[in-house]
Amino acid sequence: MGKVSVRGNKQVQLKLTNIARGIKNPKPVLKRIGVTLLKEIDKNFRQEGNDGTAWASLQFREGRILRKTGNLAGSFVFELVGNTTVKVGSPVEYSDIHQFGFGVPARPMLPSERVALATTKRLVNNYIKELSKV
């Protein structure tokens, strides 16, 4: 693990020390990423689409897409894996079928890679700004 040493301006030293501490323990920002990605998933369900692309319409019933019981929409969770990873997904056995379209039209519920990366970048940058406040 690296060490930060700075001589001179105490305010600069304090900012760098705070940033170093925050980087050493990224769990707060990982949790923010997880919560924000869950909000994106909820938005996808409300909009019945993902990243501007509408889901395929229903063929055999009326109503909201992927909302027959609400079980799938309400099942998404996130978990921290170690100190570097947040996993977002659903334990519902048929979620992958709808996400990837195995035998049915794909209706991606998880945020697109573009949205997930932009969200992560924004939240990490905000976290570092917060850490650098003295």
Give the radius of gyration: 20 Å
Percentage of β-strand residues? 5-15%
**Rounded average pLDDT:** 91
- The total strand number stands at 4
Low-pLDDT stretches:
none
**N-to-C CA distance:** 24 Å
Structural class given helices, strands, pairing?
Answer: mainly alpha
H/E series, N to C?
HHEEEEHH
The global form is: elongated
* Continuous helix count: 4
Biggest sheet, strands in spatial order? Answer: 1-2
Tell me the major beta sheet. Answer: 2 strands, antiparallel
Indicate the percent of residues in helices: 40-55%
Describe the overall structure:
This protein has helices at residues 10-24, 27-47, 95-100, 113-132; strands at 49-50, 53-54, 77-81, 85-89. It has 134 residues and is mainly α. The protein has a domain at 27-115. α1 (10-24) crosses α4 (113-132) and α2 (27-47) packs antiparallel against α4. The model has no long low-confidence stretch (mean pLDDT 91).
Using brief descriptors, characterize the structure shown.
134 residues, mainly alpha, two-stranded antiparallel sheet, two-stranded antiparallel ribbon, elongated
Q: Topology of this protein?
A:
Elements: H1 10-24, H2 27-47, E1 49-50, E2 53-54, E3 77-81, E4 85-89, H3 95-100, H4 113-132
Antiparallel strand pairs: 1-2, 3-4
Helix pairs in contact: 1-4, 2-4
Provide a brief overview of the structure.
By secondary structure, the chain is mainly α. The protein is 46% helix and 10% strand.
